[in-house]
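Chapter summary example.
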Amino acid sequence: MGHLKHRNLITTRERLRDQVAHALRAALISGELRPGEVYSAPGLAEDFGISATPVREAMLDLAREGLVEPVRNKGFRVTEVNERDLDQYTEIRSLIEVPTIGLITRTAAREDLEALRPVADEIVRAARDHDLIGYLEADRQFHLSLLALCGNDRLVETVGDLRKRSRLYGLTVLDERDQLIPSAEEHLELLDLMLAGDAKGAEKCMARHLGHVRSLWAKGKEEEPAVKRGAGTGRKPRTTR
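The structure predicted for these 241 residues follows.
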């Protein structure tokens, strides 16, 4: 059995490298690719049903983002994020996102905020349906689209990079236990506060949400030993061939 459960994500030749990179990021976050493990481009390419070249190119992109590191003659090792790293990433995100949410609440057009409600609903739906990949994609789309309303492209780019670096591990087990649903529902609460014009309330909600995400990461790490013994997945990921 291969590394990845979502091999059908790769459907066209257009921007194949970007599609592979996106699928690999999702696999890193969901825990299908494990921190500290080494994966070969040919092995992953077999899972995707494509040649090794776009996979190798995608892994090099991830290496530039700090998500993996090359291992000579073997492949790429998934980098580990320690508690100190995550605390610092979360602190930076809070310094950026909390006041920005207040600014957007005071300045954004109501229709622009309302346009994000279907995405917030999708986050909750995906969490309840145990669609982890859909959950992660909708969450990313919601947060970056919301921040984009401030009009600062570099801010959105910076937060996007921080989100990649502070990826969550162990979400599969938490998802199976419905522990992602409260975090998912916070997106609707945030949107309602912003639509009501409650900038301070929205800032507090955003700060709480980032803290919730941080606690989920810690809980996911606590579940890692059980997952590595085979709990929840029923399989052990392969490394290089």
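To summarize the output: The chain has a mean pLDDT of 83.
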